[in-house]
Amino acid sequence: MITKRPTISALILLSLTGLALPAAAKTVPAQLPDPADAGGDPGKPVKVYILAGQSNMVGMGNLSGAKNVYSGVYLSSDPAVPDGPFQIYKVGNYKVSPLKVCLPDGTATDQPIAEGLFEVPQPGIYRFHSGFGESASGVMHVDGKEAYRREAGGKPVVQDVTLEAGKRYPFKISGFQGDPPRFWLEKTDLLGHGDLEAVAKRDGKFPWLVDDKGEWSVRHDVWFQEARLAKDGKGSPLSPTSNNGKTIGPELGFGHVVGEFHDEQVLLIKTAQGNRSLGFDFRPPSSGRTDPGNEFESAEWRLMVEGVRKTLDHIEKVVPGYKGQGYEIAGFAWFQGHKDSFSEELIAEYEKNLVNLIKDVRKEFEVPKLPVVIGSNGFGGYGMAEKFLRIHAAQMAVGDPQKHPGFAGNVASVDTRDFWREVDESPKGEDYHYNRNAETYMLIGDALGRAMVGLKGGKAEPLPLEPRSEKVAPQDVAEPTEKQKAADREALRPIIIDGIAASYVANPRYNKSLVDEAAGTPPQRRTQFLRGAMYGLVNCYRAAGIDAYDWHVFGKDLRDMEWDYFTFDPEEPPARENGARYRKVGYPAGMENWHAPGFDAAKAGWKKGLPPFGQLDGKLEPLRTCDRTGGCGCGEKPRTLWGKEVLLVRGTFEIPPVRDGHRYRIVVGGSNHVTSGEGYAVYLDGRLLAESTSGVPNRQGGQPRGGHVYGDFRDDLKDGKVTIAVTSFLQTHKRGQPIPPSGHLTVWIEEQKIPPLGLP
């Protein structure tokens, strides 16, 4: 009987006993029983398992709160639609797939038909849409019930239809003109996927995790102890909330399997930390030191040992009902490998370091044949990146008895690639954390547990897996040609215009802003940026291959017109010498009304010059690489030197007549990047149109800057002539640090046709 730390002889004896006949006779079924009545024998030594690794052993499988990664999911009877996800910038992420359609006799077809059968791949609630444009009027019945109706010139009336996966439903379309129209479906019940709530409680997987009241089950025969992240350790009986109440790791699946296998009480000691490598952080003693003076090298190894020792030294305070029966260190589970993949040296040494880790763990805890299970990398499944695949190969090699005969029967490697779940099956796109998919973490832990049972002489039936795609790495796919992209956009057009764009317009989050922008109503809060809600709607049209609503230069391109300009150094210092330069300054005598239409620039001593106006450390040099197409143009070489801190530019230009159904803006180019440029002021016919007191803040780069011509300024554009005046400041500091003086400024007018909002 062992109390506290075992002696070598006693530990070896117990280790051998753990591999003997009583344990070997136990079979773990594929579907585990309800653990409600499980209770470890307090008269036998506690079985102790050490679980170690980096963040994926810490556990990143979401317990709840998953949201669907797509803003919309669509199916189309048009086989030309691209199969897969697509994004409309600032609108959402979507997924579209071709719909399986058959003739009434069940023969598959890709032709448009008015009557036939279809089936959906996922159960749920769907809305139907038939036709597009002139062919959108008509009626569609599904399974004998009206699902869609649209009278000529009217709006569609749709019904929610609940469909089962794989079942063939009859449909009939009537009331159309010409050829039968294509139809498409929108899935409206976009539930989250991949968190444990969805996997276990909704989808019914791993039923032993849920009790008969629908609550999370608890294994009172398995105690989970976190010995690395929590000060002085933290533990509880094993349940989905044991880890931290928010996520699960492999411990949940592993603990249920070994708990079912053992009659004794089980103690799981997890000692894991995120962003840790085997070759540096966990570097085992047998691998030697590469940087002896670095206190962080091998620190995770030392903390692992310390955490296990501290837990076992106080086991009577850790395991409930512990009566001094002793314990046996029964196994070691390792799940790690991400961080090493970013170092050529650590990749090359991974197999050697893992072998040394196993040997050193056995030596440290005095169990020469301690059973060890290794969870391989599984990032991307069978489409794994090369660097991860090399780590995977090293991990699998350590468990291969042909390559390491000394580990035969006491080390097993588990290939986790079958457990990978894609983004659309998961809570979020986070591949390095297995997309935070709880099913993945459950399957990995379960497989590690079953492998451990095998090493300990028992039998564990494999957990059946649902059929997945073929186990082949994806082939390189050629970039679509421009012709293919255009065809994709055309095929998606009905879904985007009648579905996505219509939903965007109807969304209360955007609707009022869209109406105000179309009417020229100024927003309550103005910003330096020119993108509003209309930008998302225009992106919908662009995704559908329609560019009629893009902004374009209005009248002559003022970037190639001569302007009057003046530069000077003001007397007023900035609020902070190392801060933003834009501020109210006094103008030279006679220039107080420099922005007014009647101001005589020549008389005031101004010069004429072509934009861009700018400098970089006193030279006519571009600031970056942007051309005009991006709305910035800072890559153009300045044609006129911006010599002193303050720049004033102005000009009076003839413009075409403004048009109804269009809107206008003045763009200030040359400084669209994060922390680039300073503030500016734009005047239209002597009135302040737009002002910004700073440059571009973090996470706001890449947007055009300037001012919209709202209704209160629109009349200024109607007489065919307009005076535009702009001021800005050279930039001399960036993030509080001095930089060579720099500036770049161009100004022009743009026009946009307002897209239809579909409003009554």
Give an account of the 3D structure.
- The protein is of the alpha+beta class and 760 residues long.
- The protein has four domains: 8-64 and 194-460, Rossmann fold, CATH 3.40.50; 99-187, Jelly Rolls (Sandwich), CATH 2.60.120; 482-543, no CATH class; 552-753, Galactose-binding domain-like (Jelly Rolls, Sandwich), CATH 2.60.120.260.
- 21% of the residues lie in helices and 25% in strands.
- It has 14 helices and 36 strands.
- It has a seven-stranded mixed sheet with strand order 17-16-19-2-20-21-22, sandwiched between helices. Strands 24, 27, 28, 30, 33, 35 and 36 form a seven-stranded mixed sheet that branches.
Q: What are the key terms here?
A:
760 residues; seven-stranded mixed beta sheet; 21% helix; Jelly Rolls; disordered N terminus; alpha+beta; 4 domains
- Unreliable sequence segments: 1-24
How much strand content do the residues show?
Answer: 25-35%
- In this structure, how is the largest beta sheet organized? 7 strands, mixed
Radius of gyration: 34 Å
The CATH class name of the largest domain reads: Alpha Beta
Mean pLDDT: 93
Query: How would the global form be characterised?
Result: globular
Write down the domain tally: 4
Number of helices: 14
Which second-level CATH architecture of the largest domain applies? Answer: 3-Layer(aba) Sandwich
Going by CATH, what is the homologous superfamily of the largest domain? Answer: SGNH hydrolase
CATH T-level topology of the largest domain: Rossmann fold
The structure class reads alpha+beta
Task: Going across the biggest sheet, name each strand in turn.
Answer: 17-16-19-2-20-21-22
Percent of residues in helices comes to: 10-25%
Distance between the termini: 83 Å
Report the count of strand segments: 36
